[in-house]
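Narrative progress, year one. The postdoctoral researcher (J.K.) led the effort to move from monomer predictions toward full complexes, under supervision of the PI. The following entry was the first complex the group processed end to end, covering 1359 residues in total.
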Amino acid sequence: MSHYKATKVVIITEKLILAKVTKLIEAAGATGYTITPAGGMGSRGVRSTNRAAVIDEFSNVKIEVITGDKQAANRIADEVAEQFFENYSGITYLEEVEILRPHKF
Amino acid sequence: MSHYKATKVVIITEKLILAKVTKLIEAAGATGYTITPAGGMGSRGVRSTNRAAVIDEFSNVKIEVITGDKQAANRIADEVAEQFFENYSGITYLEEVEILRPHKF
Amino acid sequence: MSHYKATKVVIITEKLILAKVTKLIEAAGATGYTITPAGGMGSRGVRSTNRAAVIDEFSNVKIEVITGDKQAANRIADEVAEQFFENYSGITYLEEVEILRPHKF
Amino acid sequence: MRDRTQGRRNRITMDLLIDFLSRLLTQFQSPSLAFLIGGIALAAAGSKLQIPDAIYKFCVFMLLMRIGLEGGMEIRDANLGEMLLPAAIAVVLGCAIVIVGRYTLAALPGVRTEDGIATAGLFGAVSASTLAAAIVMLEEQDVFYEAWVPALYPFMDIPALIVAILLANIHLARQKGGERERVRPAAIIAESLRGSALSALLLGLVLGLLTRPERVFEGFYDPLFRGFLSILMLTMGIEAWNRLNELRRVAHWYVVYSAIAPLAHGLIAFGLGYIAHVLTGFSPGGVILLAVIAGSSSDISGPPTLRAAIPSANPSAYIGSSTSVGTPVAIAVGIPLYIALAEAVFGL
Amino acid sequence: MRDRTQGRRNRITMDLLIDFLSRLLTQFQSPSLAFLIGGIALAAAGSKLQIPDAIYKFCVFMLLMRIGLEGGMEIRDANLGEMLLPAAIAVVLGCAIVIVGRYTLAALPGVRTEDGIATAGLFGAVSASTLAAAIVMLEEQDVFYEAWVPALYPFMDIPALIVAILLANIHLARQKGGERERVRPAAIIAESLRGSALSALLLGLVLGLLTRPERVFEGFYDPLFRGFLSILMLTMGIEAWNRLNELRRVAHWYVVYSAIAPLAHGLIAFGLGYIAHVLTGFSPGGVILLAVIAGSSSDISGPPTLRAAIPSANPSAYIGSSTSVGTPVAIAVGIPLYIALAEAVFGL
Amino acid sequence: MRDRTQGRRNRITMDLLIDFLSRLLTQFQSPSLAFLIGGIALAAAGSKLQIPDAIYKFCVFMLLMRIGLEGGMEIRDANLGEMLLPAAIAVVLGCAIVIVGRYTLAALPGVRTEDGIATAGLFGAVSASTLAAAIVMLEEQDVFYEAWVPALYPFMDIPALIVAILLANIHLARQKGGERERVRPAAIIAESLRGSALSALLLGLVLGLLTRPERVFEGFYDPLFRGFLSILMLTMGIEAWNRLNELRRVAHWYVVYSAIAPLAHGLIAFGLGYIAHVLTGFSPGGVILLAVIAGSSSDISGPPTLRAAIPSANPSAYIGSSTSVGTPVAIAVGIPLYIALAEAVFGL
Ligand SMILES: Nc1ncnc2c1ncn2[C@@H]1O[C@H](COP(=O)(O)O)[C@@H](O)[C@H]1O
Ligand SMILES: Nc1ncnc2c1ncn2[C@@H]1O[C@H](COP(=O)(O)O)[C@@H](O)[C@H]1O
Ligand SMILES: Nc1ncnc2c1ncn2[C@@H]1O[C@H](COP(=O)(O)O)[C@@H](O)[C@H]1O
Ligand code: NA
Ligand code: NA
Ligand code: NA
């Protein structure tokens, strides 16, 4: 199979705003996304997984979106940062990936 | 330490076929793989983590394989897609990474 | 927004030494890190997630550190490998990423 | 003269019906049903209440271990010869439900044959949660049943899954015009028994049979049974609602089938059980449980087995059918129906 | 003459005080408090003991379902007219606590107004774990209260959150000089009721009211109540300590407010409850629970609601205040205080 | 004449042996053993049944909290002077087992010295699940033991781990020819006490001693003890099998050591306990528990401690030995053996 370049947008942020972020992603035209539970440390302190999350919504999630459209990728990253990262903790970055079936993304 | 180029194959698919996929990976000569739990959205709908997974085997896993052999990486990605993604939901893609100890991979 | 190159260090190792590894990361000047639970297979055998982890500390974690300073990234990867991977199971590798707000990393 | 007889008959039928309906109505006060419906209502209202995955799995384990332990302890001095006929009925029913279901579904518009086969397979197989709910409702009303009846579960579950996989392979082979894949029933049986549900049930049976778990049974598994069932019912209710939108993507006929099939299967099983009652003295409680087992559709262990064995079948179709419609109907309508029927027929 | 009267009065006051203090002291033997303090001590000592997340969530579910079920079952033949005055007091208190708290906090040095509003919001809202602890302590001492009292919870919780969000929007609009965002109370109410805590409580209420869950209540939810509460108290203690260092990043005045506010709110509620006692015969146990509800600060459902609705407020400030200081004070000092007070006032 | 005495002696020995064996046999009906063996069998058969991690952790917490609470409540009016001699025996045994084990293992072919030291360390340390299983079996047979006996746990566990780490450092220093790293026993003691197992036990002890947890103990921790133990036994059985293949990678001598050592340690401890019985009236039940503690090998908290402190030791060797062979032998053979022995010796 021949391979194609695509972009992966990674967003690590509070679980609390997961629904809003995925809505933004879908609106940007992405065909899908993958979510993994995450903890971490950043400018806003430590977020743990695992132990009794008395306030569950404050732990992190990592959201990954793969898209063949570099513009869309940039847009997602920019918009998420703009809309959410003033008030919620989070980071976003982009990676280059190679995909097999371009019609899927 | 000097660093070497290697390839990471990422496979996101149903937990149900995890054993089959890892067998394929081992058969391709990879020295290891890493698995993380995942949820997501794609062409076959939403797969959640966390909430009572009445049918546990249908949630997603993310499998990452690092190998110094680009051919093997391509082979793994192609074979997984061919063998499984007609009937099971899943995606696969490749990334370039830099490793430290080439003998490990 | 304009984007900047940065480096992501990925460390996959035993949960048991998580605290030591994050200390090393902070000492290297990184501004944060992200942790995800992981299982896997490598030269030291299979590590499972999920099922009753009678000895919890032996399951894996994946630690990701993004930094704009390539030197620091190399240092983290090298030091983790040197200090821990003789006796503990683990791998480390680097990826290139594109970030939006360079002051954050 | 004929008219009067007719009239009297009508009146008797009428009385029976009213009696039956009033019995049916009281059945609906059971908290098991209430928790199931509560779960559906919560999910429908968009509630964020979730039962953690570990707790759900623990509930299933507790219920099956408890059913198994009790069965094992009481089987010790049971006459297992009595089990033969009901077990045979279970096997036959499991196979027949799948075969009839396969052709019924395939004949409906908009149903792909593979999807129909897999759906029929789940309705032939058995739901542990439905069985547990029935056991609690029988105990609430002190209805006796032979201790080995819950052990009929695998006798219907496994044959149904095997037949479904077999039918799927025949169909796919015909479609591709090639040779059909070998189905190895032994492998499917082993795989089924290794599933978490049947493993727990069988472990309980063996421990109950061979060891003396009376104290841990009476102090732990038995008293917590009812409570964990309520939590399981809640979870099944939430799940039923959440899976509903999968059904929206497939033909409406699945909904029709899933609403009718559980009751049809249950009533047929009731009839066969009645015959066993007449022939071998199978208890009324046993007849009810046999109907429940037949009327239930697998929601825990069946789906992954079929997904692995019939990969081309669309899981949205069969899981949606079983979890969102089949199970609620089997629990909320089926169980009260069979109990009320038994009250009318056997005069419990 | 005046001196003697004065002296006698002093002596009586003295006696009452000693009596009160000794009653207060015996309250501290309650295992609920002990588990809370044990959790704090363990976390402070760096213990790795953790209650798994699934178990913690299950504890909360069990407690609220149990409280709801009992309320529902007993409300069946309650005179709900009696509930009107206490419910009105709850609403008023919920709003007043937030408004007073907002201006008090905003007046303190180093407190950003948004952060103060959110903090006052949590102290106006209600903590399910504190309520459960109080219920167990009342039962331990056989203090009667009307079955609907725990159902006052949402009557104070929801108005408090709405007022906090409203005040925040007014403040932010004024700051930006622009128009203020519309607050839709209906949406906030719906959102609150959908939260996992209120969902469980309401589901329990409805099931208790409409079905017959007596057996599952008496065999499962009720006997396990006390035990799961002990585990929840342990978790809250661990959490209180772990959140303490968030408080280190914000002004010290939060600690002062969080230590005083629960008792002030509780005592005011006690007074209002006393008036209801005189006017409508509100029970002494009800007065205590009203005080507990008012004195508690939300630690499960309030924080995410405020984080979503007042994103610019710093969660370290309000969560630290509520979880690390407010809840321990409300449980360890507040509950014993109100019980001892009721003993003195009502002569329980 | 000599022959007849000899014959009579033989006959008496024979009688005792038969008596002993028949007692041993009845011990095997205990459900605790059955669940352990059931877990091994399930895992060996490839069953997918798994106890969720959160439930497993909760079981461990419940058991240790229950053991601690009971100990704490009964210690209140115990004569702790009596504890001195058994505690001293525990410390000495913990150290001696590790030292003897280290040289025994290092002398076996194919065993790396570090690995041998770590293995001996685990066998010197204590298994909470084994202890809990023994407590249930003693209660089943109404065998009395002093309430403080379970509190001997840390007196054997901690010294054993310290000695193992010490021996490892001496060995590694010698190997590298350099200076040996300082071992700080205080740090290791603190680290051990902070582990989740000992934390729960100690918290229970303190709460039992200082507060009045009778009701939560009798209504929750105590009645659920037996049930949660059965689930823990199942988990340990599954784990034992799953870890077996780690043993395949290391020398076979580990298996031999792990099968013999638990019984040898248990019998020596039984002997020392017997001396304490004669000297200070240490109860027969206490002697049994002391033997169980000595015969058990750590499977929860010991491994991470050693992995962190002796990083160069191969965990496959020591965890495989302890979890896959040591614990099953200690529970399935050891406990019945010591009880039967006590019946023979003390005529229980
Ligand atoms: N330099 C970094 N490398 C990797 N992850 C980071 C980094 N900085 C922040 N994060 C992740 O992003 C989350 C939010 O960051 P912050 O908004 O800075 O608190 C943290 O909890 C981490 O999971
Ligand atoms: N564009 C995408 N970006 C990231 N992950 C995706 C994307 N599409 C699909 N996935 C992941 O792959 C899984 C299967 O995809 P599908 O087969 O399209 O349903 C989804 O559940 C997602 O976890
Ligand atoms: N080739 C590989 N690709 C991806 N992950 C790996 C690979 N090798 C090792 N790992 C991960 O690193 C962990 C430790 O590896 P090891 O030290 O080789 O046992 C494994 O459990 C895997 O999670
Ligand atoms: Na069926
Ligand atoms: Na309040
Ligand atoms: Na030992």
